[in-house]
From TrEMBL:
This is Methylated-DNA--protein-cysteine methyltransferase. Gene3D superfamilies: Methylated DNA-protein cysteine methyltransferase domain, Winged helix-like DNA-binding domain superfamily/Winged helix DNA-binding domain. It is an enzyme of class 2 (transferase). This enzyme catalyzes only one turnover and therefore is not strictly catalytic. According to one definition, an enzyme is a biocatalyst that acts repeatedly and over many reaction cycles. Residues 3-75 form the Methylguanine DNA methyltransferase ribonuclease-like domain. Its main location: cytoplasm. Involved in the cellular defense against the biological effects of O6-methylguanine (O6-MeG) and O4-methylthymine (O4-MeT) in DNA. Repairs the methylated nucleobase in DNA by stoichiometrically transferring the methyl group to a cysteine residue in the enzyme. This is a suicide reaction: the enzyme is irreversibly inactivated. The lineage of its organism: Bacteria, Bacillati, Bacillota, Bacilli, Lactobacillales. It comes from Enterococcus malodoratus ATCC 43197. Its EC number is 2.1.1.63. It is found in: Cytoplasm. The keyword Ligase does not apply.
Length: 179
């Protein structure tokens, strides 16, 4: 059985999804691909131990601490390529950023390929079903732009600033323009 629950955060409402013991989703309100991997027959459950544990993790995170990702039983649903990209995302240290190109290079290495498309990596990053915890907000454009966050650029900036990242060093795209 699949369950969902809501969490109020400084960046707005967050929806959690999971089974009795595995977290399969964490989406921000109005996030692109919201609930992509959540079965339609999920049941609201605000007392599930998994959600209590996840909410405590989020409380620590939003208080400016660096809780361990390994504290949570993450089980994002996706194909081998996406799983590989998401495993690379989990390795990005708190308060640091990485480029799509660097993720493409690491993913190619893991999958024993000569190279990997940054665009394909961007698609996998954008479809990350466990935002915040699997830190897709730490990914920036090779040209120094804050781009490609399915939760919205403003939320990406807030998350990076929470982690102590100086976001003034990055270019922020103006709606309707490309960097």
């Amino acid at each position: 059985m699949y369950y969902h629950s809501n969490y109020s955060s400084p960046i707005g409402q967050i929806t959690l999804a999971g089974t009795d013991d595995k977290l399969i989703g964490l989406w921000m309100k109005d996030q692109k691909y919201f609930g992509d991997t959540l079965p339609e027959n999920s049941v609201e459950n605000n007392h599930l131990a998994l959600f209590d544990k996840t909410k405590k993790w989020l409380d620590k995170y939003f208080a400016g601490n660096n809780p361990e990702i390994s504290e949570l039983p993450l089980h994002p649903i996706g194909n081998e390529f996406r799983q590989t990209v998401w495993s690379v995302l989990r390795q990005i240290p708190y308060g640091e950023t990485i480029t799509y190109k660097q993720i493409a290079q690491k993913t190619a290495e893991i999958l024993e390929k000569d190279s990997m498309s940054c665009q394909a990596v961007g698609g996998a990053v954008g479809h990350n079903p466990i935002s915040v915890i699997i830190p897709c907000h730490r990914v920036v454009g090779t040209n120094g732009s804050l781009t490609g966050f399915s939760g919205g650029i403003n939320k990406k900036i807030k998350l990076l600033e929470l982690e102590g990242v100086d976001t003034a060093q990055f270019k922020v795209p103006i709606k309707g323009t490309a960097l």
